[in-house]
């Protein structure tokens, strides 16, 4: 008997496994000697009614065996698989010592709403939600091709979260797919809750400040990445998809660049790179110039700058660090608060920092401009992850500028570039297409050239199929 | 962990670098300095420093000392002010005429040696006492130093006087075959006026070209892309004939010819284009023939004035046009070394051949 129970699953055994799971539901149909066990909140009630409740409700005697022969009912002889199936939203049907499983997964999900973190002006406004099947459908709807392949893995020793690796056969490089799959399967942890969290487990350099995989909530972005030869990873219960391999410059492009006319797209790209420069060095430069390099100040600005500094009691470094910390406090407070209170923060912060700090002589108003414009510039960067990383790096540069002036600033920038060039994403260079140099890619990286010129896929993906557009003018 | 501790150690070291810091509001940034020779043959230095304190009434602070050298003067200045004196914002140096007659070489050397003094510092000569000019307050200008600086910058941009910076001045001074020049300014009742161009022989002031002839000097010296010149073409039936030639562009060419007795002959040609903005003569400029006549007349006038200026320069032994450089370039090194240019220069035959083309002659006619 004991040995039997291990191999053939019995109702008692399953119920024993789910002991004290109050949310488990069990129903029986005595006339046909059928018991069903399932989690009602994981199961689509419509499917349950159509496939089980209705057919089973009419007593049919011997016909039940015939009914269970139907293909949607899968005979299952392994206890473990039955348990996993029930947890995965299947209905277990017990009939005469035999178990059939019906996949009726269909829990309640959030409806498709616009992405909060990656808003665009023109273009599709749907975004990924927490359900992987919805997310998969959002992609499948866009790529109607059997070449879109999906590999399913499971991550999390306890959570058993589904992870799907998507790629287009013939475009994506299979070495990357294998590498990514290997890395995902190597993860051993009790649970992973988020795509961005998953990406930290599979990154090449987990200790770097910079994200090495692009994360997106936008299905249209994911789709274009797939078509460029990248691999998309979707994790269940998270609206964040991971695109790999990624390059540093990818974080500065937005789907909007392609939906708007190319001249505008190009201007936006250039704007974002200048924002990168501003956010990294503007405040640091203020510090280094006012502390060491008074020679660099143009004559017209000299008096204003010196005048605004006269009342400030601190050296410029401390002044700058103080204000930068203040802005970060404001930003963090605004991010965690409900929108209605968030507005108050904006007003309080604007008045306290913008007005009172200068009047009280705590900071100079030129610094306020520097700090504010570098904060604004950091928000121009479309990827929140990248923008946060860069804001953090800025503090280091300010300190270096305070210690060694422009020398320190250039050292900091050099270290930053050295670090960036040492990074890899799935084994490919993070600074692609600058290092390794691939000039033809630049027209889709630093500018957004007209579509007629964007004929090839990015070189970083090492795709076997480089031609993306054959159209002649 | 080691990196982190390194960062923390650096933070503490930060307070140790005080001596290298040049925090803006604690600096006395000298913007204009003037140098004169005092009666007892000492150097009189006047420096103007902007006052940035908004509560102060005056906009600039003047420091005046007599010392034996520029740097000694700075040490003396330092005893007078609470600010840390620096010269990295120096924009303009003014030399008094008596100092320039005695020679500027030593002072130039000091200015060039100090790495914090930029090569772009403007050099100008003051007809009279430079310190007095700088010390004077002109009602309409808060800061005299800045006023002079902007005046010279604007006029230099229009080519009526050359833009002379420390770099150009010391280059021409140290190079052979050319003598330095500098704009010369003068203090009047309520303005500072540009007097003309000071011509040096080596580092000593020799002669002055009046401001009115500045354009002709510029035409002789090089190519231009902007400028204005007013010429008096004499009288015609009791009426003064003035022509104002504007939007002037000039292509400058210099040719060195050696005659058989190894004398040099230099031909300067300039092809000048411009538009006539003012003409008070009787020619009808819409007629092509009349226009060509005017062109010829202007050419002749420019040529006579230019040639006269060249004679004048030669008489004073100043090669401000850099003729020597062109001659040098036409010779081998040995030949140039064996030529005593200073002796040869006054007797070189130099001709100026301007060719004027009137591009347009105004809005309506």
Automatic annotation (TrEMBL), chain A:
Q: Which Pfam families match?
A: GerA (PF03323)
Q: Where on the tree of life does the source sit, at the highest rank?
A: Bacteria
Query: Membrane-spanning regions, if any?
Result: 270-289, 366-385, 397-420
Keywords noted in UniProt: Membrane, Transmembrane, Transmembrane helix
Please indicate if the UniProt record lists ATP-binding as a keyword. Answer: no
Record has Ligase as a keyword: no
Q: Which family does it belong to?
A: Belongs to the GerABKA family.
Q: What is this protein called?
A: Spore germination protein
Q: Which organism is it from?
A: Paenibacillus tritici
UniProtKB/TrEMBL annotation, chain B:
Q: Which PROSITE patterns match?
A: PROKAR_LIPOPROTEIN
Q: What is this protein called?
A: Ger(X)C family spore germination protein
**Assigned protein family:** Belongs to the GerABKC lipoprotein family.
What PANTHER family does the database record attribute to this sequence?
A: SPORE GERMINATION PROTEIN B3
Q: Which InterPro entries match?
A: GerAC_N, Spore_GerAC-like, Spore_GerAC-like_C, Spore_GerAC_C_sf
Start and end residues of each Spore germination protein N-terminal domain:
20-186
Q: Where in the cell is it found?
A: Membrane
Q: Indicate yes or no for the key word Repeat.
A: no
